[in-house]
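Field guide to reading this record: the first block holds the primary sequence, the second block holds the structure written as discrete tokens, and the final block holds curator observations. Each block starts with its own label. This record concerns Diaminopimelate decarboxylase, catalogued under organism Campylobacter curvus.

BLOCK 1 — SEQUENCE
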Amino acid sequence: MDFNELAREYGTPLYVYDFDYITNRYNMLKDAFSARKSLICYAVKANSNLSVLKLLASLGAGFDCVSIGEVRRALLAGAKKYQIILSGVGKRDDELEEALKSDILMINLESEAEMYRLEDITKKLNLKARISIRVNPDVDAKTHPYISTGLNENKFGVDINTAKKMYIHAKNSAALEPVGVHFHIGSQLTNIEPIIEAAGIVSELMRELKALEIDIKFFDVGGGIGIIYQNETDISLYDYAQGILAKLGGQDVTIVCEPGRFIVGNAGYFLTSVLYEKFNKQKRFIIVDGAMNDLIRPSLYGAYHGISVVGKNTSAGACDVVGPICESGDFFAKNLNLPACESGDIIVIKSAGAYGFSMSSNYNSRARAAEVAVQDKAHRLIRKRENFEDIIALEKEFI
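BLOCK 2 — STRUCTURE
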């Protein structure tokens, strides 16, 4: 991939996605479950570019959505409605109503209060809601606390006993049809043991539900499979799939998996241009035109991203790579050994395909970056760079 050429043609800051890599990652996961009925629902929140969604829809992917906007994106990109799941802790009434009218596969419930609210809305529309319930198995995912979701202290899901009550209520409701059970214990998981443990707990719940004649058709194991940012180890997809299948013990269900980062994380690169180097006494800074509004993960999570300077390899010592925003937290790396840089050099920030552009903002009235796809050695623009008029479009008429 010629990063200099891409920077020259499209400018910086710039997101670049390898569509061949995305295709390969989707197929790897689909193949891991090839012996059983499965549905790979891509987690739209990781990277919601319409061209990325269109590519995955063409491969047969379903979509895990956490807002009605993501449902609309998936449908616009060519997703089949019966392969879309709506999840999320705080769904508004209008979102639930639109999801029902869109006739998607199922709505994933996170609380008793949400179940009763959905039931009322469904009765009003004279429809029937296909539901799953997010069960919190109280399993420690052993990941960053901000992206751990499977413990009782987290805001997600309900405990086993509450879930049983909800399923029994749904079975006896004319407005609700319980078809799935769901869990998701966290993101960037590089140890499969917590996932397998959670699968065992939720599988046992499913057995109890089937004994009550509650016919669960979809066993949703969530997403969260990690990627290599620095020195992590890839999990074995074979062991992952076989571990889940073993916990099911022959129960006849469709396994649903909701990967996001696993598919797009290492497909993405963030390109930014060096403005200049700066020294405060002995402290060296490389100041670039990208900023925390473009890629917030280092500032938000202390996340590591591999960084290189195109065409240069010899280190000139430790430095901080920082952006133009008026925040001390505006950095991509600290105390990183990099070559001496000149104005115009291109810096590549790796593993930027997930939670990069999708978490970007207009902070400091900065226009969001352009996005480019590379596929079969060709490249094309898939989102234009914003300009100032785009930023103020929803405000201008009021001044």
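BLOCK 3 — OBSERVATIONS
Residues 133 and 288 are 45 Å apart (CA to CA).
The chain has two domains: 3-14+266-387, 48-259.
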